[in-house]
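User: What would this chain look like folded?
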Amino acid sequence: MWRTEDGGTSWSAVRGSPGGDDYQRIWIHPTDPNLILAVSDQGAVVSSNRGESWSNWYTQPTAAVYHVTTDNAFPYRVCSGQQDSGSICVASRSDDGEITFHDWHPANIQEYGIAAPDPRDPEVVFGSARRGVSRYDRRTGQTAQVGPDSAARGEKFGRNVRTMPLIWSPVNPNVLYYTSNVVWKSVDRAHTWTRISPDLARQTWTVPASAGRYASSVTPAPRGAITALSPSPKSGAVLWAGTDDGNIQVTTDGGATWKNVTPAAIKPWTRIFNIEAGHFDARTAYAAANTLRIDDMHPHFWRTHDDGRTWTEINHGIADNAVANSIREDPRVPGLLYAATDAQVWVSLDDGANWQSLRLNMPAISVRDIQVKDDSTCVCADLVAGTHGRGFWILDGLTPIRQLARSRGRAGTYVVTPQTAVRVRFGTNEPTPWPPELPAAQNPAAGAIIDYALAANAAGSVKLEIVDASGRLIRSYSSDDPVLDPDPALDPASYDRVCQKNPGAADCGLPLYWPAPQQRLATHAGLHRFRWDTRYQPIGDNPRTGEVEATGAVPHRSERTPVTPWAAPGRYTVRLTVEGKSYTQPLTLRLDPRVKTPPAGLRQLAALSREMYDLAAASHAAYLQARARVDSLSGAARAQVESLAPAAPARAPRALARPGQPAPATPPTLESASRAALAAAMAMQDADVAPTAAQVAACTRARAQVNAVLARWRRLEPPPRRSRRR
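Assistant: Here's the prediction, encoded as C-alpha cells.
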C-alpha cells in the first residue's frame, strides 16, 4: 500500500509484506483523513492515524482456501493452502475449550496448494505446488522439495496450473499421486516418481461463445492440466482424472491404459473441480464440473455407475446461479452424497436424484471443497468444508443424516444409533481463560451425542437414560428437569434483572457471557440432539449442581463444575421413553486415544472411582432415609439419628463435593462421609492415569468413614414394618 501527500509526485510504501498483501480496496473518510479502511486478500484493517498503525485482520474468519484435507492425528487437523496468508493446519478440537492460535500452524504449502498429510505420520504434511511437491515435518520445522523434476519442463514434467492434485492411495498408504497434465506416482513416499499416464488434456480447443466480441483476438494458450484425481477405495488399479479443459479420463489397470469417458455435454473450458471414486464399487464415480469460465452459472454434477460409459447429470433441487465445486460420497451409506457450490453445501439421500440444503448455520459463501472425515483414527463422522472467504467449517456427527438415508426419510419416533463417544475433557486450561474479544473457533461438544426423533409432540415428559452392560442405570435425564428460567446464556438481559433482585442466584456472580446454554430434552415433534457428559448421575435432588467451571472456561460455552466421576469406557444402552414406550440403541464409550496409561492403572482408576461414587451415593441415600424418619422419633433415639443426619443448611441439597475438597472435620455424619467419598473420587478425575499413593490413601480413609457411619445407621435404623398375618 502506497501513500502520496503531494498529488502523486512522490510515493511512500506504508503497509505490506515482502510477498505482497494483495490490497484490493481503500476507503478514506471524506471529512476525516485519519480514518482509513483497507481490504486485502487477508481481510479488512482500519487505521485511525493516517496509516501509521492498523488494526489486526486476524479478528475476522476470512481465510480463502482452495481445497480441504484432514490428517490422522487425534484430534484430527484440517489443512489447506490459503490465499495470500500462508497455509493452515488447524486442530478440529482443542484441549483449551476453544480453538485458538495455539492450535494451528502453517505447513509450508503454497497458497493454492493441496495438503496431503502422511496417513502413517500426521506430523508430516506433503503439499502440491506449481514447482512440484513439498514435504513439511513439524518435528524439525523443515520443508523439502520432493516432487518430480519440475526443473525439466515440457514433455518430461508437463504443464500445471495453480491447484495441482496431490492424493494418497486409499488402499496403499505408501502410494502418493501428483499431477501436471500427466499423472505421477510414487511408491516410496515421494522419494522417486514414475509417470503413469499420457497427456490427459484435450488435444485441441475452440474459443467459447462466451468470449463474445473478443473471440477473434483470443490466441492459443498451452493445453490444459489435470485438476482432479481420485484413486478408487475399492481397487488400486482404478484412477479417475479430470482436467481444467473439460476432460474426464479413467484407468482400470493402474495407468497402463487410459480411456476418455467425458460426457458429451461437458464443453471445452469446463473445469473438472473434483472427481469422487465410488466407495462401494470400482465402476462408480461422481464429478463436479465448474463452468464459470464459459459464463454458465448453473451447477453441473455428474454420476456414472459403469466405468464412465454413461453419465447422468444430477442437479435436481440444487439452487441455480452457483457453479459446482465439489461432490463426495458418504463412505458408510451407499447413495448418500454431499455437494458444494459457490453458495453452500447440499445433501442427497438418493444418489443425486434429489438434493436438499445442508447449509444450516453456514454463511452464504463459495464452498470450494468438502471431505467426509470418518475413520478409526478420528472416532468421528464429520463433514468438513473449506470455503473461499470464511475459513473451515465442520458439521459434527453425520449419524442422523445417515439414518435418514438408510430409511429413505422414514417418519416415526426413534433414537439414532450414536457414533462411538470419546471420553475427552472439554477444556483443561487453568484460569484465566482467553477473553471473549480474542478470536477463537468453537470446540465440538464433549461427551456422547444422542440424536432422537419424535413423530409428534409428546403428551407427557420425555425421559432419556444411560444403562451399562449389567443393566445398571448410570444417568437419567427428563424433560421435567429444572432449569434456570430465563436462560442466562440465551437471554442475559432478562437474567440480569433476576440477579438485580436476587444477587445470590446461580451465575449472578460473573458476567453472563460465560455460561453455556442449558440442555433440556425436547418434547416437540422433530429431530433433536442431546449430550450425555459421560459422567455418573449427580448425587442429590438437583441435577444443576456445580457452578460455572473456571478451568476450561470458554465465553458463551462454559460448563458447570463436574460433581461426579467419569463413566468407565465400555458398552452402554441409550433408552428413550416417550408416552410409556421405550426406544433403545447401543452406545460405545472409548477412552481418549492419546492416553497411554497401562491397562492395570486404568482398571484401578475405574474401580476406585466407581467404588467411591457408590459409597457416596449409599451414604447420601441413608442420610435421606434418616431425615425422613427423624420427625417420627423422640428422645435419645432422635438425638442419635440427628447426630448422624443433621438438618441440612437452607440451600441444601447442593453439590456434595468439589474436586480437591477436603473431608469435613469430625464427628462424621452420613453427609460428611458422602462428601469425603465423592471428594476422593473427584480428586482422581483430572487425568486418565493410575491413582497416586495419596489418592489411594484418601480412598481408604473415605471407605472407612462411610462404612463406619453406615454401620451406625444400620444399628439405629428401625426395622421395616411387617404386615400381621390374619
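The chain has six helices and 42 strands. If you want, I can go into more detail on any region.
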